[in-house]
Design brief:
This protein is mostly helical. It has six helices and no strands. The termini are far apart.
Length: 169
């Protein structure tokens, strides 16, 4: 026996009886990520930045990627605390008081020590790593070698790799 009125659609429903509006949220987000042109179908998180894509292209070890990211984070924290203008404006939340002077001094010492370690590999190495990690610019093919040397020197300084280790996977 059928009831009078509109027929009920046969769909997945929420607990309150309404038809579900969620369309597999994880799959939908993954489809958006895969459609981004710089990712070329890869879901690897390193595809999101120029530096990460550089590391993937050269198949560098994860330790080098982490060293470059740590350098970039230290410099960005120091720049933000000092009020140095940056090319990218992040909407950050905070108390507005900023970091303590002692903390800013620690970041500065860390940053300078990292840059000295990269300078041991040469000025080209330091500039290539800065261009990749801080500026977000692609490198020319002739700069790949110095960038890898700079990242190796940085990783050795940070203690994540031993001197003379192989930079590739």
């Amino acid at each position: 026996m059928s009831r009078p009125g509109r027929k009920r659609a046969i769909v997945a429903r929420e607990k309150n009886g309404r038809p579900s509006r969620a369309q597999h949220p994880v799959e939908a987000m993954e489809a958006v990520v895969l459609a981004q042109p710089h990712r070329r179908g890869s879901t690897d998180r390193r595809c999101a930045s120029v530096f990460g894509r550089f590391c993937l292209r050269l198949k560098l070890r994860q330790e080098l990627t982490e060293a470059g990211e740590e350098y970039a984070a230290t410099v960005k924290r120091w720049r933000a605390a000092k009020g140095v203008p940056t090319p990218f404006h992040n909407e950050a939340s905070g108390s507005g008081r900023g970091a303590a002077d002692a903390t800013v001094a620690i970041w500065q010492r860390q940053m300078l020590a990292m840059e000295r370690a990269m300078m041991e590999a040469g000025l080209k190495a330091l500039l290539a790593v800065k261009q990749l990690t801080l500026d977000g610019n692609e490198l020319g093919m002739d700069q790949d070698g110095p960038a890898v040397e700079g990242l190796m020197a940085l990783a050795v300084h940070l203690g994540v790799m031993r001197k003379g280790a192989h930079p590739w996977m």
